[in-house]
Write a structure and sequence with these properties.
Helix content is about 35%, strand content about 15%. Strand 2, helix 3 (about 70-75) and strand 3 (about 80-85) form a beta-alpha-beta unit. By secondary structure, it is of the alpha/beta class. Helix 1 packs parallel to helix 6 (about 195-210), helix 2 crosses helix 5 (about 180-190) and helix 7 (about 210-235) packs parallel to helix 9. Bound molecules: pyridoxal-5'-phosphate (PLP).
């Protein structure tokens, strides 16, 4: 990026992000024409909905999940079909029957961290009426991914981001993998120069240095196990996480006060004041030292209550 931040920035970036897509094609074993680069994966989600949703179009997803789907569908005038996850966050059977033009599956899901296995995603791809979009923002922290489905289904799209495992959220780089006719539709509604020169260069550099990302992921997975075990020892129910955060629950207990008490100690965890999640905290896997501090603070809070 330092090299690219030269007088070259006088020039417009490549509207097709070709070098980035070529590198991604090699890394992920997906043909170049099946890849579209976006200004973060949020842009790719927005392009997809802009290209596919008319007023009243049905878009289905299991909930609770990434809250932006609902916002973006509403912005296009579409109709959200929200299918509740069961208690264990396994794939809800009603999703396939939602008669939606687009079905989202965030996998691993946020905020639960849970992963739907590949054979079930495959069955879902076969069963849905329209397009299945698998949002794999957190997939580098998981044991499986849905890219193998691309060569067998013309209604599956996989969306990735460089914001999580590659630690490049500030540069806004995302990738969509899908059938070329669908990607052509997305191109018709995208800004010509959606990715700036420096972000394209950073994306290529990140894909040339997968070792750094893998080392980061390995560290986070190891700390995730320590965090989950520590929370369970403190009496929380922790869903099996395949992401870089865990969801910890105390059935029926509003954890808002606990989140606020942690905040006064300078520890920020996510509490959602909703009927489905009021008794849960989403906790990001920090460093080992941060996790030790958190577990100690939780012990203190429990003693005080
Ligand atoms: C499930 C999910 N999808 C997509 C995104 C957006 O990522 P990006 O930074 O690539 O826009 C996020 C960010 O939090 C996310 O949690």
């Amino acid at each position: 990026m330092a090299e690219a931040a030269s007088e070259g920035v006088r020039l417009y970036p490549d509207p097709e992000s070709r070098a980035l897509r070529e590198r991604a094609a090699r890394v992920y074993g997906v043909p170049l024409d099946h890849i579209l680069a976006g200004n973060g994966s949020d842009e790719l989600l927005a392009l997809l909905l802009r290209a596919t949703v008319d007023p009243g179009t049905r878009v289905a997803f299991p909930v609770p999940t990434y809250s932006l789907y609902e916002t973006m569908v509403a912005a296009q005038g579409g109709e959200c079909v929200c299918v509740p996850f069961p208690d264990d966050f396994s794939l809800p059977s009603g999703l396939a029957r939602a008669e939606a033009r687009v079905t989202f599956l965030c996998n691993p899901n946020s905020p639960s961290g849970t992963l739907v296995p590949l054979d079930q995603i495959e069955a879902l791809a076969r069963a849905v009426a329209g397009l299945l979009v698998v949002d794999e923002a957190y997939v580098d922290f998981a044991d499986a991914n849905a890219l193998p489905l691309l060569s067998r289904f013309d209604n599956v799209m996989v969306i990735r981001t460089f914001s999580k495992s590659f630690s490049l959220a500030g540069l806004r780089v995302g990738l969509a993998f899908g059938p070329p006719p669908l990607l052509a539709g997305l191109r018709t509604v995208k800004d010509s120069y959606n990715l700036n020169r420096l972000s394209q260069v950073a994306g290529v550099a990140a894909l040339e240095d997968l070792d750094t990302m893998h080392a980061n992921v390995a560290r986070i997975r190891a700390t995730r196990a320590v965090l989950a075990a520590g929370l369970e020892r403190l009496g929380f129910r922790v869903l099996p996480s395949q992401a870089n955060f865990v969801l910890a629950r105390r059935r029926g207990v509003d954890l808002g006060p606990l989140a606020r008490a942690l905040a006064t100690r300078g520890i920020l965890v996510r509490h959602f004041a909703t009927p489905a999640l009021f008794d849960a905290l989403r906790i990001t896997v920090g460093t080992d030292a941060e996790i030790a501090t958190l577990l100690e603070a939780l012990r203190d809070e429990q003693r005080a209550r």
